[in-house]
Amino acid sequence: MKHFARALALAGLLGLNASAQAALVPVDIDNFNAADQFVTDDTLNGMPASDGPVALPSSNGVATSRTLAINVLAYNAAPTNSAIVDSGASLLDVINETGEDSEVTVSWVIPSNLIPPGAFGSFFRIAVLQSDGNPLTVEFLLNSASLGSFVVPGHTTNQDLLFTASAAQINAGGTLQMIINGEAGWDADFGSVGLAYNTTPPTTTPEPVSLALFGAGLIGMRRLRRRFTVA
What is the pLDDT of residues 183-197, one digit of tens each? Predict the structure, then answer.
C-alpha cells in the first residue's frame, strides 16, 4: 500500500468563466466514508459476489443504501479480484491481479428530484484518485435504463471527471448503478460519486460524454491508499 495526499487547484480547467464555474453545485451520492464492504469472486462468469444493501447515513451523501458486487470475467490461475469500500480512507478500491479482469457494480437507492427546476445542465461526476495504465469504462444506469457511459484514461490521478446527464431521468430517483470495467489487470481507486448542476447559463458547455476536471477544491485533500502489483 502507498499512502499520500494531494491537493488540486481546478479553477478554469472546465473552460467555464468564473461566474458560471462558481454556480456549479455539487451533490454527493456517495463519498465512501461509511459502511465498509469487501467482495471477492472466485468463479469465472458465474453469479457475481455481492455485499449489501447496507444502509448509509445522511452524512455519506444522498444515497440511502449501497450494494457492492464483483464478477470475474477472466483470470490466469485462481481469481483474486476484489472490490473494497474503505470508509477510513473514504474510497472504493478495486484490485485485479495481472491477467485478471472483473466487472464491478455499485448500486445505490437515490431520492427523486435531486436536480432543481431551472438548472442549466446536469452532470455525473466521479473522483478518480488513481488508476493504473489500463483505460476504464464507467456506465451509469437508473432503474435499468442507461444514463450514459464514458472512458477514464489510463494513469488518471486525483481528478474529478464528469459527463452530461439527463436531469429528467435523474429526477425520477430509484436504483442507480455504476458499472466499471477495464482491460485485464486494471486497478483503480475512486473517491466519491455524485452529480453537479449549473444555476446560471455557462458561456461554454462541456461536450457530452466528455471528461473534464471539475470545480475548485472538490477533491481537496484526499488520502489515497493504493496497492500495486509488481510483475
Answer: 988 999 999 999 999
